[in-house]
């Protein structure tokens, strides 16, 4: 690994230790040229298989993009979305798989989104959960109304098509997920 201080093309590992219950390894490195030290973190890249069959690294920003559209007009802030995306990543990583389907990412979004905002949840779920029949969907809505006790979780104003809101369809966002390895300069 290249030294982040002097760009020397090689460095020496002087210590390795596990982080996050073995999901990542932190290495202390020393540069043979400038003798400065830095750390790297190595973690498995979580890949998402899109419906098209294309795989790409998991990105929290894509979860946020997808969920934000379902949250239009709802009292959900950027902090809520960032927290939800973190929860989703933790859930998926806890499955211990190197690769997940984009539909599984959608399913991992459902529970935390329901906690956050039921209307947004319904919009999102209408795309990502495969209801076996219209009755299932109606039952879901009735269940929500019961829990909301007369709240605003009705389906009446949620008929807009939630097209392209998923993590598999967002485009052009910079990657903000966990990088393959990150150098942390330590002076
Ligand atoms: Zn160096």
TrEMBL record:
**Signal sequence coordinates:** none
Ligase among keywords: no
Q: Which residues cross the membrane?
A: none
The record's InterPro entries line, in alphabetical order, gives:
ATP-cone_dom, NrdR-like_N, RNR_NrdR-like
Q: Which residues form the ATP-cone domain?
A: 46-136
Cofactor binding note:
Binds 1 zinc ion.
> Does the record carry Zinc as a key word?
yes
Q: Which UniProt keywords apply?
A: ATP-binding, DNA-binding, Metal-binding, Nucleotide-binding, Repressor, Transcription, Transcription regulation, Zinc, Zinc-finger
Q: Where is this region: Disordered?
A: 146-187
Give, as residue ranges, the zinc fingers classified unnamed.
3-34
Tell me, in a sentence or two, what this protein's role is.
Answer: Negatively regulates transcription of bacterial ribonucleotide reductase nrd genes and operons by binding to NrdR-boxes.
The family database entries (HAMAP family) matched by this protein are listed as:
NrdR
Query: What name has this protein been given in UniProt?
Result: Transcriptional repressor NrdR
Organism of provenance: Nakamurella leprariae
Lineage from the top down? Bacteria, Bacillati, Actinomycetota, Actinomycetes, Nakamurellales
